[in-house]
Design brief:
The chain contains five helices and no strands. It has 133 residues and is mainly alpha-helical. α4 crosses α5 (107-117).
Length: 133
């Protein structure tokens, strides 16, 4: 129920009238709208991006929808590339753990410190789009 209220505050879902002393009733269109929002989120759209596709008409706005989908696809592919890079870096760092001959030194932790020191300003990044590697 909190998600419904959140969507209403964001303007993604209208608030149905509340009968005197009663409970708000949501119709099938409201349920379909919530399902659409959830589907869009699973496809990678942020809530602030969902309003655009919600307002499009499936009969007349296909070109505009295609453009929104294509933009999202570019973002998803960039994110996948970043995740593959992170995966490779983690595999290498983890392998140094098992290869480390010194019980006082962990290759993973030492490698992370080394990568962090190579960052501009010497600080580690917390964003996946700006990995520490």
């Amino acid at each position: 129920m909190e998600a419904i209220r959140f969507y209403q505050r964001r303007g993604l879902l209208l608030k149905p009238p509340k009968p005197q002393g009663g409970v708000r009733r949501y119709g099938l269109a409201d349920v379909q709208r919530v399902r659409f929002i959830k589907c869009a989120q699973r496809l990678g759209f942020r809530l602030d991006e969902v309003a655009g596709p919600l307002e499009l008409d499936s009969q007349t706005d296909c070109a505009q929808a295609r453009q929104l989908g294509s933009q999202k696809l570019v973002e998803v592919r960039a994110r996948l590339h970043e995740l593959h890079c992170l995966e490779s870096m983690l595999v290498r760092l983890i392998s140094t753990c098992s290869e480390s001959s010194s019980p006082q030194s962990c290759g993973l932790i030492e490698g992370m410190y080394e990568l962090a020191s190579k960052q501009p300003g010497g600080s580690a990044s917390t964003s996946v789009s700006q990995p520490c590697c």
